[in-house]
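Handout, page 2. Input:
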Amino acid sequence: MVSATTEGGRTRTWVLRPNQSLTWRQAKLFFGVALAVSLGVAISFASLGFWPVLPFAGAELTLLGAALYYCQCRGQYVEVISLQGNRIAVEKGRCTPEERWVFELAWVQVRLQPARFSGHPSRLVLRSHGRQVTVGAFLVEEERRRVARELRVALAAADVRTSAPD
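Output:
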């Protein structure tokens, strides 16, 4: 999911997030329903003498809970690309920025690298002076192309503004 904003004509920001089908509340509700149904069935079988069902139900619920937690944590990941003044900054992290890259606007290149193998996604890369950062790896192909196009247009417009005489 991509959202782009412009503030005062000089600052442009793109916020990239993975698509997330469930909120935390919905995931907890789903897990609670699955827990109640699975334990209800397992306890009823255990009461009929099939007690070995209980450990398998516990393992199943543990794995389901771990998978839901993992997916919800991955859904909190965010990448923010900020074009401000003569710099472009990329911040990545879960809930708060954990990594940050800053590039000079005049030297940064936006590259959409094709996939090495058929059926694999392309890579959107910002690079300058031998350093590079991949952004939007979790986006679908069309979103990745749109972000690349918007970044190129914004960089060209910013370059025109910064090189124009006063």
